[in-house]
Amino acid sequence: MSQFAVSDRAAARIAEIVAAEGGPAALRVAVLAGGCSGFQYSFALDREPQPEDLVIEHAGARVLVDPASLDLLAGAELDYRDELMGSYFAVRNPNATGACGCGTSFSVD
Fold it and tell me: What is the pTM for the complete model shown?
């Protein structure tokens, strides 16, 4: 099973956010029940990983993923998009069989 990956753009943005916060932190990526398609992505800064977390270090950034979320994120990649309509973290998830227009909610079979 492939692990969760972090793009260079996402790593650069995480490093900027953490530097602005003024201390060591990581971006926690989680999958929660809810949203208009069944699951939704959650992004939050977290100071300390939990013992069972996957810790990904890439290009000066740290990302934390809990085991339950990792099951739904295996083979996916965290990216950062800076588009005309706004800037945001996005997950390219091969496990998602459907998604809603907001881009933060998805479904699996």
Answer: 0.85
Residue 101's pLDDT is 58
Question: What angle is formed at CA 63 by the lines to CA 60 and CA 65, rounded to 5 degrees?
Answer: 160
Domain range annotation of the chain: 5-101
Q: Is the per-residue pLDDT at 103 higher than 80?
A: no
Closest CA to 24 of 52, 68, 64: 64
The residue whose two tokens read 């973290």 is 89
In CATH, what number does 5-101 get? 2.60.300.12
* Higher-confidence position of 109 and 23: 23
Measure CA 34 to chain center. 16
- Tell me how far apart the alpha carbons of residues 38 and 45 are, in angstroms, rounded to a whole number: 23
The sign one gets for the Cα dihedral 87, 36, 95, 73 is: positive
Structure tokens at 33: 């029940």
